[in-house]
Amino acid sequence: MKKVISFPNLGDYYVPIKNFLIKTSKCEVMVPLKSTKHTLELGNKYSPDFVCLPFKYTLGNFIESLDNGANVLVQAGGGCRYGYYAEVQEKILRDLGYKFDYINLTNKGGFSLFKFYKGIKKLNPKLNIFKFSYWLLVAVVNIIYMDKLDKYIRKNISYEKSKGIFMKIKEKFLKNVDNNYSIFKLRKLYKQSITEIKNNLKNSKDETLKIGIVGELFSLMEHSSSYNIEEFLLSKNIEVRRYTDLTCLLITKRFQMKKFHKKSRKFAKYLQGADATPNISHSIDMANEHFDGIIHMKPMSCSPEINAVPILQKVSEEYDIPILFLTFDSQYAKGAIDTRIEAFIDMLQMRKENLINEG
Ligand code: SF4
Hints:
Layout: E1 4-6, H1 14-25, E2 28-30, H2 37-46, H3 53-67, E3 72-75, H4 85-95, E4 101-104, E5 106-107, E6 110-111, H5 113-123, H6 129-156, H7 165-177, H8 183-199, E7 210-215, H9 217-221, H10 229-235, E8 239-242, H11 246-264, H12 276-288, E9 293-299, H13 303-319, E10 323-328, H14 334-358
Parallel strand pairs: 1-2, 1-3, 3-4, 7-8, 7-9, 9-10
Antiparallel strand pairs: 5-6
The protein binds iron/sulfur cluster (SF4).
The site of iron/sulfur cluster has 13 residues, from helix 13.
């Protein structure tokens, strides 16, 4: 039987994941459908009540892919409870009667590259460790360039010459990546995209706000699970700073944890789980850089970020920076979230004008 491989959504990272799987597994690769209210409803229906939202969304992704013909699933995890979700999801799907091969990349709660290699080699026995490592390297380079481009866009959005042009450039980059999958070509594409953005910058920026986004990593990177708040802010030409991305999680974070802990120690003596400690440290940085406000997002029952909330409230008081706390659960409430975001933006705008008037 033809093998069709699928994986859960994580923002635009489907691009390097898809290309990596095509090159290494030689199977047909099915990109999951974009996560929607229906995806969440599906995942919610078959998940334990207490489990956090990433579990429900990714289970919903799996069910949609299996219903559409996928018969091999890949799940990763690590860093928090997510490191144990792969096994539970497999059990739920098998109990539902689905037949599939499962590549579980977690080992004792952490990510295991060796398990990944072994899982893909089962699908493609001709694969050797050198080819696997090469395509992995290309995927990592792809992720780094995607993240750099995104950061550049978020930082310079208030200089955008015509509305929406940066997003178009980014979409073109993502589309072209498929046909240019080598380190050299990725670098060239990235440079072209940055040049195009630079050619579309105004000489002076719009007097818009600067807002930081911190919180739980899945909510920050899989935008459909957080009502596309980041896109909404960018569409209003608001400068957005978000530190959490795959480059940070896979590469840079581990080298910076000491620094984050030192900075946040005044508010939290011990290291918090997942991204809570970096989020506290980043919020202090953004307050010191006079950002207008911060949005903290988390799924309901996310213990690491629940711990971060009272600490961030103290940061907000001490550094006089407004922080909006948003918690997402399986109730789909886009209207309510949009209203809160708009009210927050209005409040920040008024506050900024008052501060300017007061001199
Ligand atoms: S960080 Fe929180 S929401 Fe995300 S997977 Fe871990 S426990 Fe769940």
